[in-house]
Specification:
The protein is mainly alpha-helical. Helix content is 72%, strand content 0%. The protein folds into two domains: 204 residues, Hypothetical protein af1432; 149 residues.
Length: 438
């Protein structure tokens, strides 16, 4: 089906005409340079539910010490016009697309969307993009096109979604079926809502490969959303593990935004704690603590499986290098594999640390009772696992910068492989010991 025909059909979509009137007015007033806090407050007061949410947010610990703010006018002054607009859009979109009968798991969808929104805001802060609230809103809306396609082409979408859940590329399936994809549909939706055009244009590129020749200031928001989506851990659907090309893409995007690997790693570690806090005061359901722990455990397992696969490939490459006297092509391939493995181990470490944060938070909230010290022992195992993974990573770093003459000796290569295997076995033994304690 041609893309134009799809968009012609979507013009009659109920979501395109159901944007709440109060939200339309909020967008209009906040976009006017001469609007005052009082002007915006008067519009928000027309919607009691929105007014209540804004007052709850401005008085939440997330925005600092409790101030006892009781009026919308004070809230607008305190939060700022852009933050109020972002909050109004965020909560209204969630209510607008809430549907328990959807084939797309709404909890997983909004968990991913909110995670990407927070990631985009943190990336914006790291690269000094202003206003950072725009990045948050764009991140939250980046996958809205999925819900539009689902509600308007239910039978076709259901067929595609089953294939996507089995690991196939959603963007490719959408293109083959409708001649477009959900990113472009999201842009079309935002254009119909008369939101600023740069928001839709940025969202439309969140699955594109980065072209360094298009490294222009006006494309920064698009790169921020693209990067935020790629580093997201909680996904709406099943996707294959990142391959070497995906890792290169993340590096290119972060480099283009002036964000080094250390800053990016630190940024990723903060996203989970923000996700839990902000979902509460925005009243966006992202699942129970048990759901999040289960998702985190699943991520850890997938990382281990992938690490083992890469280790086997690494072993084959080492043997090939020994036989071929470390030819340049083989050496380059080894470095690529090593860099890939390093990335996945770093991801595994971040995921384990995130699980530790979840357990700690659950204990503090008294949602987990730990009379048998299971959670406490879990924390010990987590710390030991991270230490072991870090040790493996140190071995891998040596592989990427070794003296070539030293590695002509195959026995030395085997020694490195044995040390890596011992550390992996140690991790597995720690896991079994922990499982026996439950």
């Amino acid at each position: 089906m041609p893309e134009k025909q799809i968009f012609d059909l979507l013009r009659d979509c109920k979501e395109l005409s159901s944007l709440p009137q109060v939200l339309v007015e909020v967008i209009r007033v906040t976009d006017q340079e001469d609007s005052s806090a009082e002007d915006i407050a008067n519009v928000i007061l027309k919607d009691p539910a929105l007014s209540a949410r804004i007052l709850r947010v401005v008085n939440s610990p997330f925005y600092g010490p409790v101030r006892g703010i009781s009026t919308i006018n004070q809230a607008v002054v305190t939060l700022g016009i852009r933050a109020v607009k972002a909050l109004a859009l965020s909560t209204s979109l969630y209510k607008l697309f809430d549907n328990d009968k959807s084939i797309v798991d709404r909890v997983r969808f909004w968990r991913h969307s909110l995670e990407v929104a927070i990631a985009c805001r943190e990336i914006a802060r790291a690269c000094s993009y202003q206003p950072e609230e725009e990045a948050f809103v764009a991140g939250l809306m980046h996958d809205i096109g999925i819900l539009i396609l689902e509600s308007n082409f239910e039978d076709q979408f259901q067929h595609i979604w089953k294939l996507v859940e089995s690991g196939e590329s959603m963007v490719k399936l959408e293109k083959a079926t409708w001649g477009t994809n959900h990113a472009l549909v999201a842009k079309f939706l935002l254009d119909q809502w008369k939101l600023p055009s740069f928001l839709g244009e940025a969202i439309a590129t969140h699955h594109d490969r980065f072209d360094e020749y298009e490294d222009a200031p006006q494309n920064r928001l698009g790169r921020i959303i693209n990067l935020g989506n790629r580093i997201s851990k909680f996904r709406t659907c099943q996707i294959p593990p990142l391959d070497a090309d995906d890792i290169v893409e993340i590096e290119k995007l972060s480099d283009s935004l002036g964000i080094g690997p250390t800053v990016l790693a630190e940024l990723q570690e903060t996203i989970l704690s923000h996700l839990l806090k902000e979902s509460e005061f925005l009243e966006i359901k992202i699942g129970s603590m048990t759901d999040l722990l289960g998702a985190a455990n699943s991520l850890i397992y997938k990382q281990y499986v992938f690490v083992e696969t890469i280790l086997r490939e690494n072993r084959k490459m080492q043997a090939q290098i020994a036989r071929d006297q470390i030819k340049k092509a083989s050496l380059d391939s080894l470095r690529t594999i090593t860099a890939t493995l390093s990335h996945y181990i770093n991801n595994a470490s971040a995921t384990i640390l995130g699980r530790a944060q979840l357990v700690e938070l659950a204990i503090k909230k008294e949602t987990v009772h730990d009379e048998e010290h299971v959670a406490g022992n879990s924390m010990d195992i987590i710390v030991k696992s991270v230490e072991m993974i870090s040790a493996v990573l140190e071995e891998l770093k040596k592989l990427s910068s070794f003296d070539t003459t030293h590695y002509h000796d195959e026995t030395d290569i085997l020694d490195i492989e044995d040390r890596l295997k011992e550390k992996i076995v140690a991790i597995e033994e720690e896991k079994k010991a922990f499982a026996s304690m439950k």
